Amino acid sequence: MSKNSETPVKKAAIVGIVGRTNAGKSTLVNALVGEKVSIVSPVEQTTRNSVRGIVADPRGQLVLVDTPGLHKAVGPLGRLLNGMARASSAGTDILCVVFDASHAPQMEDEGWMARVARERPERCVFVLNQCDRKPVFETMYRDSWAAAMRDSGVTPDWFRISALTGDGLPALLDRLFDLAEPGPALFDDDIVTDYPRKLAIADVVREKLLARLFQEVPHEIGVAVKDIAERKGEWDVAVTVYVNKPSQKGMVIGAGGRNLKYARKAAEPELSEMFGVKVRLELWVKVEQNWMKNDRLLTEMGYKGALV
Fold it and tell me: Reduced to 3 states, what is the DSSP secondary structure of residue 68?
């Protein structure tokens, strides 16, 4: 058999997608996977769990780990999310640090640079996202890295992209596969995510509520799927939306129930397409003071421990 007819060696890698909140990490993961696996919203802390999107390619497989964005933590949930973001970058084969190039570097951006300089990952790329917007602060990011790197010896590749328009993504994907090492696929090629379905459903419902409550109580909302009643081709899903205060309950429900109706009507077709069955949602709002400190609820929402 000639050398040219040999089967190409497949590659595999786990890629940690990290960075400041609202840098566009979830949009990037969705764009690279080619399907929506992570919810997107302009509200900080939209991504609250580590979501794995799977890129199947003739060259092999990349498992993209979308992490909660680092932010100035307020309260126990904020600190928990920051801890999850830092922990998720450990154990990955490739570190992909995403910056919002349409804004000047923030403290959290410089914190990721300092961590890269300190921990010296062998395979690392820096991604300047949202370069379709103007101005682009590329020089300031490069200067911040020069100040952080000192004598670390780390020389990450830099990529200018727009996850929203797709500009620059082929070159980034090529480089990620270049950095990947030969190895077997970690998942079947027809799987785009291994995210638990209860968490995926809760995330989509929360995304729709955030679209209605952007200026009100987004960080006070927790969503938990209580039950999935399955019949042939149909799911009836019971979902509880938690808020901290009685006054917030009315905000979430909306006048005449309009916010819950919007969330249900927007989420049901998306979930039906996602899971290939007809999904019907039953949404309830419950006041649970200090739910962010309730270990049982945090576990149920997938923020700590094992999903129950």
Answer: coil
Q: Do 169 and 31 reside in the same domain of the chain?
A: yes
| One domain for residues 118 and 25 | yes
Please check whether residue 172 lies inside any domain of the structure. yes
What's the distance, CA 4 to chain centroid? 40
Chosen domain end from 157, 182, 207: 182
- Structural domain containing residue 61: 3-182
Which tokens in the block code for residue 229?
A: 């009643």
Q: Which residue has the tokens 């992909």?
A: 96
Do the domain assignments include residue 308?
no
Tell me the C-alpha distance between 51 and 39, whole Å.
10
Which residue, 51, 52, 45, 94, is CA-closest to 70? 45
Residues contacting residue 182 through CB under 8 Å, at least 6 positions apart: 9, 10, 11, 12
Tell whether 191 is covered by a domain: no
pLDDT tens track of the chain, all 308 residues?
344 545 578 999 999 998 888 889 889 998 998 877 765 544 444 444 556 788 989 999 998 888 764 434 445 544 544 455 455 556 689 999 999 999 999 998 999 899 889 888 889 999 999 999 999 999 999 999 999 998 888 899 999 999 999 999 999 999 999 999 999 988 877 777 766 788 888 888 988 888 888 655 556 788 898 999 998 899 999 999 998 888 889 989 999 999 999 999 999 998 998 888 999 999 999 999 888 888 888 778 776 644 43
Is residue 7 located within the same domain as residue 98?
Answer: yes
Contacts of 33 (CB under 8 A, 6+ apart): 53, 54, 55, 64, 192, 193
Q: What CATH number does residue 252 fall under?
A: 3.30.300.20
Number of domains in the chain: 2
